[in-house]
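note to self: dont lose this again. the chain is below, predicted strucutre after it. 263 aa total, dont forget to put it in the shared folder this time
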Amino acid sequence: MNNINRKKTLVLALYAGEIMLKNGAETYRVEDTIIRLCKSKGFSYVDVYVTPTGIFISVDNKGNNQEEILSYIKRIKTRSINLNKVAEVNNFSREFVENDISIQDGINALKRIDLLLPYPHYIHATFGGLASAFFALLFGANFLEFLSAFITSIFVTYTLKYLNSIEFPPFLTNTSGGVVAATMAILLSSLHPGINIDKVIIGAIMVMVPGVAMTNAVRDSIAGDLVSGLARAAEALIIATSIAFGVGFVLKLWMYFTGGNLI
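---
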C-alpha cells in the first residue's frame, strides 16, 4: 500500500469514528469500527484510544522503515444524539470490510451519512411532548396534567433546538430548558387548580434527561474504558445539575415573590 492510500485509509477510519462519537456511540464501538476498517486494508498493527473528546490512532505495517508509522489525532468538540447515523456507519463498516469498496467511495459514503438531516423540529417536539406526557402519567398525572406536560415539553424542545442552533453553551442551554419547563408549569397551573406543578415539571424535563450519556457511562466503565466512563458520567451529572438549577431558580423566585401561591 503506497503512502497516499495509507493516509486515505486512516482518514476514512478517523472520519467514521468521528461521526459515531459525535452522535452518541459508545467508546468501544468507535474503537472497534476504526480497527476493523484499518485492518481490512492491510494494516498489520492498529491501536486506537478514544475518549468523548478525542480520537487517537496509530498504525504500522511492522516494517523497519519509520515512515510506515502513522499517527492521527482528532479533537471532538461537539456531541449530540443521533443513533441513526451511528447505525448507518455500522452498516457501512460491515459493507466496507466484506466487499471491495475503494477508499474514495468509502469517504463519499461517509460524507453522505454525515450530511443526513435529522427529523424536522416539529416531529421532535411532537413525539418528545408525547413521551413527556406519558412520563407524567407514570407519576400519577391526571388528564389536564398530561396535556400540560405535552404542551410544556414542546416549548422546552423548541427552546433547546433554538439555543443549540446559535451554539449557546451546553450548561446554559439545559438551564434555560429547566427555566422554560418550570415557568410553563406555573403558568398552566394558574389556569386550573387541578394541574399539579410537580407532575408537569417532572414530565416536561424528561426530554432533557441525559439517558444515553448515563447508559454509555455504565457500558464504558464495564468494558474497562474508565476514563471515558468517568467523562460521560461527569457529562451526565453536569446536564442533570443544569436542569435542576434552571427549575429550582424559577421555583425559588416564584416562592419568594408569591409565597408559593398561584397569581
